[in-house]
TrEMBL record:
<feature type="domain" description="DUF7053">
    <location>
        <begin position="2"/>
        <end position="171"/>
    </location>
</feature>
<dbReference type="Pfam" id="PF23155">
    <property type="entry name" value="DUF7053"/>
</dbReference>
<protein>
    <recommendedName>
        <fullName>DUF7053 domain-containing protein</fullName>
    </recommendedName>
</protein>
<dbReference type="InterPro" id="IPR055481">
    <property type="entry name" value="DUF7053"/>
</dbReference>
């Protein structure tokens, strides 16, 4: 039995990071992949047979993550999956197809305003900063109900680390 879960994460960025640097990073698929602490291997591939017509012209990768199933590294394993990358003017969309029916659609967008720019209206209820730039990550995932909490926790932790690595790299 699968469960669909949606969540949004807001990551404020330091004032020293420019809009151009963030968009360039989000559009650099290999760098974005390499900054994810879970990914241990990546290969650019042709669209797989399960690619939808809409995703056929995306950039595709085969990715292998190193996953820790139990605390303290007591049980680790590798998971290989395919992922489509599609650039947007202010971000990127990804769609990952993993084993056990795990399906993750992720949209990363750059939002907010820098000093001197008109203040961008902020969506209510997200905890987004009123001023400054931030990355908004919207996740829509579907997986086995038993795996949902583990996958969500692992995804949030690895993507938070990716954002922190971006902040360090960009300064």
């Amino acid at each position: 039995m699968s469960k669909r879960t949606k969540f949004t994460t807001i990551s404020p960025l330091p004032p020293s990071i420019t809009r151009a640097v963030v968009v360039e990073f989000l559009h650099n698929h290999q760098e974005m992949i390499d900054l994810n602490p879970l990914v241990k291997e990546r290969h650019c591939i042709k669209p797989p047979s399960h690619a939808t017509p809409e995703e056929f012209h995306c950039t595709w990768y085969s990715l292998t993550d190193r996953i820790s199933y139990l605390p303290g590294g007591l049980a680790n394993g590798d998971v290989t999956y395919t992922c489509a990358f599609h650039d947007l003017p202010n971000g990127i969309q990804t769609h990952c197809y993993a084993p056990a029916g795990l399906n993750i659609r992720d949209k990363w967008t750059l939002n907010g305003s820098l000093p001197g720019e008109p203040i961008e209206p902020v969506e209510l209820g997200l905890g987004a900063p009123i001023t400054g730039l931030y990355i908004r990550e919207d996740v829509d995932m579907k997986c086995n109900i038993v795996m949902t909490n583990f996958v969500k926790k692992t995804l949030k932790k690895s993507h938070a680390a990716l954002i922190e690595r971006l902040k360090v790299k960009a300064q």
